[in-house]
Amino acid sequence: MLKGLFKKGTVDQRFEVIRFAVAIFLAIVMAFILILLVSKEPFEALGYLFLGPISKFRKFGNVIETAIPLTFLGLSVSIMFSANQFNMGSSGALFIGGTIAAIVGLVLPLPFGIHPIVAMLAAGVVGGLLTSIPAIVKLKWGASELVSSLMLNFVALNLGLYLILNHFRDLTAGSLSSLPLLETVLLPTLVSGTRIHFGLIIVIIMVILAWLFLAKTKWGYALRMTGMNINFAKYSGISTAAVVLYSQFIGGFLAGMGGAVEIIGMYDRFKWQFMPSYAFDGVIVAVLAKKNPLYVPIAAVLLAYIRVGADTMSVNSDVSYEMISIIQGFIIIMIAANAFLKQYRQRMVVKEATQHD
Amino acid sequence: MSLRILFNLCLLTKQGETMQEIVKMENILKVYPNGIVANQSVNFSIVEGEIHALVGENGAGKSTLMKILFGIEQFTDGKILLNGQEVKFNNPQEAIKHGIGMVHQHFMLVPSLTVAENVVLGDEPRKAGGLLDINRAIKETQDIADRYHFDINPKMKVEDCSVGTKQKIEILKALFHGAKVLILDEPTAVLTPQETTELFKELMLLKEKGHTIVFISHKLNEVKEISNRITIMRAGKDVGTYHTDKVSKEDISNLMVGREVIWDLEKTKAKPKDVTVRVENITLVNEHKRRLLDDVSFSLRQGEILGVVGVEGNGQRELVDVLTGLQRVSAGKIAIMNENTDKFSIRQIRDLGLSHIPEDRMTLGVAEFASIEDNLLSIYFDKKDFLNGPFLKLKEINVWAKEKVKDYTVKTGSEKSPVKMLSGGNIQKVVVAREFSNNPKIIVADQPTRGIDVGAAQFIHKKLIELRDNGSAVLLVSADLTEVMDLSDSLIVFYNGKIVAYFEDASKLTEMELGLYMLGLKSQTEEEVRRCVYA
Questions:
Q1: Would you say A68 and A282 are in contact if contact means Cβ atoms under 8 Å apart?
Q2: Is residue B108 within 8 Å of residue B67, measured between CB atoms?
Q3: d(Cα B493, Cα B513) in Å, to the nearest integer?
């Protein structure tokens, strides 16, 4: 059956599956070797790494919880990269989105049900405005969105911290955090025994909406064509300036919303003191998912699994968390590298191309 | 350096023998990474001191074969023998070291440098301290030019040179780097008839001096005129090598295409009606204050094909750009369907009924990684028929795309395949299918058949005439003189950004006469040129 499945699809699709599998396999081998080198009890450590996330129901819950913001970030980057706009502002939008949601959760007394929606939308809009700045600067003066968005992340981070720490800080709390949010804004837990919250439903809806937008609407079409060849899009009469702008707004909107969902889903107050460690993982998720919104949650879960496994391993064994970053980096390089297994692909192509005669 | 000397020594020792096979390519297979088989079991050999023509349709694999010989592409399987020794060139530098030179269709010169600087680039004569010895460079360039009777000024900047001169510089460059075997890829495609005659004289001289020349072409007249032997390629394979005087033009063309070729285009006389495009005194100045278009006026009428000819770089491309909205004019006025389009976006111009076949289809005409369907859709995606609110009616679009693929005989397994998997001719058919499907009132066709096979080219020619007969106005820009002369009803000639001649009846012209105007050797009076402006 596997063989039958294999026959279908183009050389490229088959090749992608093989390359993905080989990349993961090599990464596991690499992880194994590294752990053998640094650990006194390597097999135990490996067990924690690969089986830790499914050892307990609560642990698997952690995977899903971690995957939720990763999915938002992955969608955000996927949409911007599909338009060939290398905006790195997703992390800034996530942070400012979380801040805005917390403020809405503190100052706006709204009924249950409406309150989180307002918080998420407000966070999305502010996130979108943030990532629109590089777009506007690019359209007006031709500045690279890559550089300006990276710089803006610092603005977002410090603006968020300023707002919380100077205006909404809980001085009685032991650590740096905001006052407790109103109960009405918090997202309810979805699965008891875990912290999986209502945000899971929201993120699934957003995945579907993002996919519909990109694959089925006229705006998504214009966005994809602009991303694939902006000269062709211009020549066809597509308003590429509009695409440059709305692709980056939507990207920021999704990341901002992700920040909101994380704050009102996982916490009862704003507790970020610096940029969350996963804030830049949107790029990894988008690359793994090949910018397809439907693959984004899968890539996010995969990454979340590795992260939770690494956590479990570093807590329970003598292998440090840094080791896992090295292994992750290796997986990403393997998958992102286009020329990887090029020789093998060429042989596949030659075989396919010449077998007709 | 030492290799080159060694190689030349080899040549000297073998000069006594006649008909020495200098290059032999055996069973060459080339599969590109996108799966296209460009060459398959190709055998090709050239003997010392001959002019060997390599002919075939566009996409037959001629250029690929020569790129393999020159080290730009690597073969997938096969063998190359150079003077009986097996060789494999990983890059052009290695091929050059072994005495092989190539002149590409698109010149690879540095425009801001002088002729001499370009010729010596890569192997410069140096002063002590490593600095370029410019005087020696000029002298050495002049020496080679004199030896081969090339009329050239080594101190001139390349950007100021004509296309014909640029080609000479390319040839000199190859000779300077020690080329004994010289590959010319469609050298006459960009030349006027006069320049072609001059090139052929130079090639004959090169041959006399012992050089071996591979001449890639699909112009059979030229092949018959200049070559000793011919190798014909079709669909990636070689279909034989012949002595030129033993095959007729008809034999060659039948072998090239694999069927009888009907060369005649059926075309009735044009019945021009209303003016659709009115161009009044337009000027386009670039950032260096050069006038790319200089006070150009003409009218384009319904039901006629107006040909635009000129040596490349004389304003034709810029004319297309300003008409289609890709660029704005510096002065003057363009009216399309009686609307002043000065401030119109590309979209607004297209909405007036203008279609555009761009010169460079890979840059403008398609998004190569997108599917055929998506490429067909790019000017229709937000039309009412295909929309349901903001949602695309994907089923209807798919049915429509299938129909277009069938109507325009695009050879593909599926309309969902990416365009990059198609051959050049089929990519152009995708472009044409899109641009012709909305009953265009005006068609700007810029090099509509460049680099595509005869079948696809004939198909596009027929379509253009059909659209003309249905009342479209066609502006045809082409460097292929045969094409413009066959298709056009009237002709305008560009030289230096100006219209220098207008011929109301294109059928009465000869290529030679046209060449005189294209080279700026002849021009009509202002009143004669003004005739192309209609009320």
A1: no
A2: no
A3: 11
Using CA atoms, how far apart are residues A83 and A145, in angstroms rounded to an integer? 12
Residue in B with minimal Cα distance to A353: B35
What is the CB-side half-sphere exposure of residue B272 using CA atoms within 13 A? 20
Domain A60-317 maps to which CATH number in 1.10.10, 3.40.50, 1.10.3470, 1.10.150? 1.10.3470
Find residues 239-258 of chain A whose CB sits inside 8 Å of chain B: 239
| Alpha carbon distance B3, B25 (integer Å) | 21
Residue by residue, pLDDT tens for chain A (357 residues) are: 344 444 445 667 777 788 778 877 887 788 888 888 888 888 888 888 889 899 999 999 999 999 999 999 999 999 999 999 999 999 999 999 999 999 999 999 999 899 999 999 999 999 999 999 999 999 999 999 999 999 999 999 999 999 999 999 988 887 888 999 999 999 999 988 889 999 999 999 999 999 999 999 999 999 999 999 999 999 999 999 999 999 999 999 999 999 999 999 999 999 999 999 899 999 989 988 889 999 999 999 988 998 888 888 888 888 877 777 787 777 667 766 666 666 777 777 777 766 654
CB-based contact A237 B31, cutoff 8 Å? no
Closest partner residue to A234 (CB to CB) among B346, B366, B392 is B346
Question: Using the beta-carbon criterion (under 8 Å), do B345 and A233 form an inter-chain contact?
Answer: no
Which chain B residues are within 8 Å of A341, Cβ to Cβ?
Answer: none
Tokens of B41: 């079991």
Task: Note the ipTM here.
Answer: 0.87
User: Locate tokens 């920021």: which residue?
Assistant: A252
Which run of H or E residues covers position B331?
strand B331-336
B346/A228 CB distance under 8 A: no
Residue A76's nearest CA partner among A241, A222, A247 is A247
Interchain pair B37, A353: CB under 8 A: yes
Q: How far apart are CA B439 and CA A133, in angstroms?
A: 42
In chain A, where does the domain assigned CATH 1.10.3470 lie?
A: 60-317
Residues of A in contact with B349 (CB under 8 A): 237
Query: Which residue of B35, B358, B379 is in closest CB contact with A237?
Result: B379
Q: Which residue of A has its CA nearest to B351?
A: A237
Residue A249 C-alpha, separation from nearest chain B C-alpha, in angstroms: 18
